[in-house]
Amino acid sequence: xxxxxxxxxxxxxxxxxxxxxxxxxxxxxxGGVDGAIHRRGGPAILAECRKLRASHYGKGLATGRxxxxxxGELDARWVIHTVGPVWQGPGSDPSLLAxxxxxxxRVADKLSARTVAFPAISTGVFRWPMEDAARVAVETxxxxxxxxxxxxxxxxxxxxxxxxxxxVR
Length: 169
Hints:
This protein is of the alpha/beta class. 38% of the residues lie in helices and 18% in strands. The chain is built from five helices and six strands; from the N terminus they run E-E-H-H-E-E-H-E-H-E-H. It has helices at 32-41, 43-54, 95-111, 130-143, 158-168, and strands at residues 3-8, 18-22, 66-70, 78-82, 115-118, 150-155. Strands 1-6-5-2-4-3 form a six-stranded mixed sheet, sandwiched between helices.
């Protein structure tokens, strides 16, 4: 049984087996969580991302998919990069958002990771409404069969924390 934990704070400060990055499809860094992970993790993460782009992911990582790299200088063993969907307005299909969580946990299982920290994927510049994103995240993780023992949602501000707390109750 996977335990779901909520933390308000900085995902780059978590001590876990794997930190999930709400990545850019380019895998080459960006803003928000992606930029913070690349900055704090150091050049080793970018170097591995460049190798992935030069081999399997020449066109970038597809939305809803996940891939792992080293965690560099973060207090983790791996960073699992996943590309969330952009909110297109009412009627947007949440299946790609759910896929980010499922695929990240599948990668974590392949790595034998037991603790995984997730951000609120797609809720920043990709504009997915926080309450809906929290519902999709918590339901998907709760329904997933995984060997991961703890999924830690690391939420940047009080609004995000409260939205996720409503879903965990």
